[in-house]
Design a protein that fits this description.
Layout: H1 5-8, H2 24-36, H3 52-64, E1 68-72, H4 75-86, E2 93-97, H5 103-110, E3 114-118, H6 128-138, E4 142-146, H7 155-165, E5 168-172, E6 180-181, E7 184-185, E8 192-196, E9 209-213, H8 216-227, H9 241-247, H10 260-271, H11 273-291, E10 306-307, E11 312-316, H12 322-334, E12 340-341, H13 366-372, E13 375-379, H14 386-402
Parallel strand pairs: 2-3, 2-4, 4-5, 5-8
Antiparallel strand pairs: 1-9, 6-7, 6-10, 8-9, 11-13, 12-13
């Protein structure tokens, strides 16, 4: 399809930062919490069975098919808690894919670890060969694997590699809540899974997160460090009392609990997650299908065993210069389609890359740099209809073909 002057005048007029409203029954639950004045997770009446937060933890543990879940104040805090509970201490090397967002290295640095970035492939997943080489070179014992933008690497291969190298696997699932690999939930392949409920994630409480695990000793540390004030008996997805007793005086209180207000609006959203995952994938497909066959455009290949949740779309425009890419982004933005470019020299809003994070001493990663230099990123909120996404796809197609 060749662009015409009339077609090029079409604009998209909806906001890329507008989420769907919080469901009415979730709003009602939040109002009840506010009327009670009991916003702290442990501030429940004596005749109440449990708090919203404890009930949410139990529900998310069931959803994931795991034994233990701790609700946190943010996804970044969830990663910090997971790293500490796994045993990361001052100076420990922690491997992580270089294509990620700044809270990942931030969490590693916050617990005293040293981020060791690993190359990322053109399919936007961690490079397994480079992972093995850097693990051996650094004698690292931890891998914080970021499923960045929802792209899932071969998890069977990752688990096998971690086993052979004695790496503790911690999954950053901020973009993969609801996703699976070979039928197994994202976040359940390693020792710990970390999740975010920040506004642009798959369930929305503004800020918030979860850590999940099947290891009772690790779970006990999580509960105590989250700030349980010896009230861990009020949890429904925590280890038994004997396990908690073994750790209760050894763990510092780091006070990063989720509050009742946020928990009250998340439970209903969790019930809708699988349906919303399907809705996101329909919208992403409408955009991807419009640009898939354009010459010199590359969409990442999805592993055949991965069922992703495509709440955003990424594509590469290899062979284009920085000036050409800036022009493409500018033209699309002028037509209401907000693109982000990971190759920009300057960090912009949430879009930055490993070389921008000057608090991390990292070598140059040529394969990752090549990929990032032409990587385009776009959010897909559920406030867009499938028809909206078809229009976005048409605009993208026109501009990609025009320049």
């Amino acid at each position: 399809m060749n662009a015409t002057p009339d077609s090029l005048s079409r604009r998209f007029d909806k906001s890329f930062t507008q989420q769907e409203p919080i469901p009415e029954d979730a709003i009602a639950a939040a109002v009840d919490v506010m009327r009670s004045g009991r916003l702290h997770r442990y501030n429940v009446k004596s005749d109440e069975d449990t708090s919203h937060t404890a009930a949410l933890e139990a529900a998310f543990a069931r959803y994931q098919g795991v034994e233990h879940c701790i609700a946190c104040a943010s996804g970044g805090y969830a990663m910090q808690l997971a790293l500490r509970a796994a045993g990361v201490s001052q100076g420990d090397a922690v491997l992580s894919n270089a294509f990620t967002l700044s809270p990942v290295p931030g969490a590693i640095v916050a617990v005293g670890g040293k981020p060791v970035f690993v190359e990322t492939t053109m399919d936007l997943v961690i490079d397994l060969a480079d992972l093995e080489a850097r693990a051996r070179a650094t004698s690292a014992r931890y891998l914080l694997l970021s499923h960045m933008r929802g792209h899932i690497v071969d998890m069977d291969a990752i688990v096998a590699l971690c086993d052979s190298l004695n790496l503790t696997l911690i999954e950053d699932c901020a973009h993969t809540m609801g996703a699976t690999f070979d039928g197994k939930r994202s976040g359940t392949h390693g020792t710990l899974g970390c999740f975010s409920t920040q506004t642009y994630k798959h369930i929305n409480s503004g800020e918030g997160g979860f850590v999940t695990t099947d290891d009772p000793e690790v779970a006990a540390r999580l509960v105590l460090m989250s700030g349980s004030y010896m009230l861990y008996a009020r949890h429904r997805a925590a280890p038994d009392a004997a396990t908690m007793e073994n750790h209760r005086l050894l763990m510092p209180n780091l006070s990063g609990r989720m509050d009742e207000l946020r928990a009250s609006i998340l439970h209903v959203q969790l019930d809708a997650l699988d349906n919303n995952a399907q809705r996101w994938n329909e919208r992403e497909a409408a955009i991807a299908n419009a640009i898939r066959d354009i010459n010199h455009i590359s969409l990442p290949t999805v592993h055949p065993l991965a069922q992703e949740v495509r709440s955003s779309i990424q594509f590469l425009v290899p062979g284009r210069s920085a000036t050409e890419i800036r022009d493409l982004v500018s033209r699309c933005n002028a037509r209401g389609v907000e693109l982000k470019w990971f190759g920009d020299d300057t960090p912009r809003a949430y879009t930055s890359r490993y070389s921008h994070w000057q608090y991390v001493d990292s070598p140059v990663l040529p394969a990752t740099d090549e990929m990032l230099s032409t990587l385009i990123d776009m959010r897909i909120p559920l406030s867009f209809s499938v028809q909206d996404c078809e229009l976005i796809g048409e605009i993208l197609r026109e501009e990609l073909q025009a320049g």
